[in-house]
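Rotation project, supervised by the postdoc (A.L.). Task for the rotation student: set up a whole-complex structure prediction and record inputs and outputs verbatim in this book. Inputs entered:
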Amino acid sequence: SVNPDLASERQTASFSVEKLTALLDGGAEQTRIRRAVVEAIESDPVFSRENQYFQTQNERYEAAVRKAVHLQKKMHEMGWTENGPEYKYIYRALSGDVAFLLHRVFMRSISVLGSDKQIAKWIPLATQHKLIGSYAQTELGHGTYLQGLETTAVFDTATQEFILNTPKISAMKWWPGDMGRSATHTVVFAQLYVHGKCYGIHPFIVQIRSLQDHSLCPGITAGDIGPKMNFEHIDNGYLLLKNVRVPRENMLSKFCEVQPDGTYVRQGSQKINYFTMTTVRISLISDEVLTPLMKACTIAIRYSVVRRQSKLKPGEQEAKILDYQTQQEKLLPQLAAAYAFHFINDYLQELFNRGYREIQRKNFDMLPELHALSSGFKAVITQHCTAGVEICLRACGGHGYSMLSGLPSLYTKILASCIYEGENTILLLQTARFLIKCFMAASAGQPVPPSVTYLAAVKHGKCPAKNKLDFLSPDIYTEAYQHVAVRLISNTAAKLQDLIQSGVKKHDAWNQCTVQLVQAAKAHCHYIAVKNFAETVEKLETKAGIQKIMKHLCDLFALHGIFSNTGAFLHDGYTSAAQMDMATASYLDLLAVIRKDAVPLVDAFDFTDKSLNSALGSSDGQVYQRLYEWAQKSPTNQMSPAYERYLKPLLHNTLSKL
Amino acid sequence: SVNPDLASERQTASFSVEKLTALLDGGAEQTRIRRAVVEAIESDPVFSRENQYFQTQNERYEAAVRKAVHLQKKMHEMGWTENGPEYKYIYRALSGDVAFLLHRVFMRSISVLGSDKQIAKWIPLATQHKLIGSYAQTELGHGTYLQGLETTAVFDTATQEFILNTPKISAMKWWPGDMGRSATHTVVFAQLYVHGKCYGIHPFIVQIRSLQDHSLCPGITAGDIGPKMNFEHIDNGYLLLKNVRVPRENMLSKFCEVQPDGTYVRQGSQKINYFTMTTVRISLISDEVLTPLMKACTIAIRYSVVRRQSKLKPGEQEAKILDYQTQQEKLLPQLAAAYAFHFINDYLQELFNRGYREIQRKNFDMLPELHALSSGFKAVITQHCTAGVEICLRACGGHGYSMLSGLPSLYTKILASCIYEGENTILLLQTARFLIKCFMAASAGQPVPPSVTYLAAVKHGKCPAKNKLDFLSPDIYTEAYQHVAVRLISNTAAKLQDLIQSGVKKHDAWNQCTVQLVQAAKAHCHYIAVKNFAETVEKLETKAGIQKIMKHLCDLFALHGIFSNTGAFLHDGYTSAAQMDMATASYLDLLAVIRKDAVPLVDAFDFTDKSLNSALGSSDGQVYQRLYEWAQKSPTNQMSPAYERYLKPLLHNTLSKL
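Outputs recorded:
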């Protein structure tokens, strides 16, 4: 039975939850397919995550391998293929708790970087799981800056082999997934040396474990890097190479080849590679970043209508905590952000599909813009969503801190997204470099890519809002965001030029502006996100209440950004203090409006109880019962030797006899 | 041998590290005592934390019990007593990883709430560990709002007993430490009923486990609440009571007593109780909040001078990451905050000692101010330091995410401090209530406590700064902080009055102002922290470079607060945009200045390598070697059955035979 405090929230929905779910999925047919996949996965006990919070790292790893192996069988049974419409829902249905994800990266890197011959040799072996692949790029002392990698691959013309080595401890490969305990092969990135000359970083296929008995190959030292904040199911590994020899054919050679005599030949354009990197950044947003935030919102909002605490009005019963303005102000902006980023993800996907078509026609013009947008949004979205999950966790008080709430795991998982696939600060600085370049070009009257044409039209007006309702006009707030982005970009460009003109060297000047460059890049992305949300709302059908509630969320997303960063809008007087007070009033009013639909808005994310795996967030709101039942299953409720060994002697005053 | 990249940082210290350590300790003699305690604890293998990151919750709990038991012996051996000067350093030296902390709370609650007779009976039993105590207040459905607790204690005149019950699942006691597996007794808070009338919450001593064999007593259901984000070493427990009878004498009766005929008698003043609560909030700041932040700063800053990445200047070697402005802007403000909060902690301690003396003289005048300051600073400091630790973690990239860095545990531990001993938002609203009251009083010309006299002298001037150097003047920035605090408090008071005058009911009006009330309370605390730091610096001796570097940190703390919250200072034009640009310039300049002393500034915290327990932060900077050595010890480097069970059949294509 559903907790009446939760049930009542659903009776007053101002819109059709089912219609909103279909909108989020991209159509009712997609919803149907997704639900079928989820049902098939969740009804299979092998895929259960029930005991996850009680398991050790070893147990998590083993379960992930078991699931990966079982998934092969399942896909065959269900008739799911890698190109079928179900495929993209499988990983999400498993909540990512599955091994061999790097096996796919191994295959992709061979497909992209390998010659036709290499593809013909390795891809069938990998597809049939006659080997397990990994991808060894990051080193103990080297991450984002690939040119700094220290692993070496020296070509030996005599034997026609590359000799791979880890010359220093900082050169040891560190972090590659599936490598600690599973992989038999990996793609190693190393500095290529031929006849004493360094040709930079190249990829080499290296076997690391025996296909017979899984023992480490000669010259290989490898293992697991140990406990992490999350990802216990993944065997992130280390790898030391000592004079490991691989045949000449093992250097992936679509773009560069070392010929038998040691001649180094470069062929084709590598530009497509950069595109791969940007694609990965975009593709992780949905499953790795938005899904955790949406789950956290679901858990925290459902809990907040079931949990009652203190009295809002004297004499009444204790109030639902979501009725407190402070609780609304914590949770509802996170909900709005989840929707905002869902729509910006659609925008980015579409842009990338367009980019891909152009690139296939050998037109690389869109690459810089795609790189800037994917870098900036990867950083902004991961940062925003990580903070959002933490807010959800803390908003649930003590129970949020229990692993059984599901929130700690969501937080520790999403936190990693700020670091992997490009550290966020570095990514934002890449976006900033693009913005500064475009601003200079636009100022000089040169053409710039579509997303930054606004930099050409710098206006010096004032915000025209006259009352608080004006701040519910998308034109008003979108203009304000645009103004802030232009100001931050142009001011930083000016500071950079001033420094250089005053004699500071270019690289020093850049470093001295980086804190502000990061702000400028964020402002640009925030503007694009607000503008895109407003444009999306505009295009929605007005039926079933969807457009109306989405408009509220769009307003909240925009006004929350203003309220949390008032200085940016006040700085040059574009927005006056009086207008800021109006924006704040509208913002606070909106909280109370959206609060009414909070539960239907998270219901629309359509997570099953099994996928939430949370004692606080289940769809029936039976929070306390579930916490109690679940806690009883904890291994800490089995007998511990602490009593016989310590407590009994202490209580019986026989400690001295120990 | 010390990594030369770390060693070079120490050679250029602008001040005496040893002198600064002594200042932080409160004198060289204190430093000596602290080091002796740390040495004694760390040289004893029973207290080792070496394998902590590899242990399960069960293993952590058992180790904590072992340590607690061993500590009794150790104290005897060393001649340490609970009233000796060493005592306060023991818990810190153990990094809190020890059981039976609630046993102390059990004892304190009897001492404070019990009659002389009760104290005489129970305290010796507890001191001699003839029982193990806990403290059962929080319930599954009830935390901060004590009046809402649902556990009942009904007086039975016939048997002269109280009958305790958990009438609903939400009434189950939940979270009490030491209760899940260890405690034999606990203090249960329950609604007292006599002859059908409810007298509110009262404390009862209840035995829950047999002293003979530790089995649960009749009517008791108890156990461990399972996995949490941290505090694995503590057996936080649950407790269900079913018609559990305790004698009349077990109600703690210093302030209220139920006489044999059921007559309820209230005696004495309970005001001292509120003081206990405020004392706890202040006492946790040092060990539970500041120490984790100081450790995180030590780890992240040492790592940032050892880790090199990318090139700052073309042609040079890769740069230390602390040389990047963005990295400085992440870490150095956290360092400044650690010092700022260390000094505000001194201020609060002193205030509380004064308050305590007054209260002993039956003068309770200081209570409201003490309550407001302890609530506000508990919230502000825990929030700021939690965010600071997270920044440190993320600033270390992938390695910060490894448990072996020590940073994940620091984060998950400090995060809890935002929730326990009063949820932060609720505490800030209590501070705000005090501020609004004082503002109204001050406006009416009535006297107000010393920390809020500034509310009486509202000035409408402008910031007088003329260039960026003016923002290094404590008068300039302290005034600015004061102005913001006054504005936020007075504006919110005005909004509150307007709402009430327009017919909104008082409680609704309060709720509609809470988001802004929280901001006002934070601004007040931030102002006091800045003012106190500036005044502390003023009083320091100018010798040995201490005052100079502390002045830099004070400036940084103040300017970081302005830079991160420009809107508050710009809003009413107190600070102009041009002045804000000056403040920003000074802020960014300061980063480069303090960066030079960053390592000596964390060295002064004087943490041993064992207490940091971090592969990234050790004093010799041998980061990569230590990560590698440590990872090899992980249980994930033992054989897992995954190979035989799954990988081998997969690779050998014999899965179908499974």
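Student's summary: The mean pLDDT of chain B is 95.
Supervisor addendum: The radius of gyration of chain B is 28 Å.
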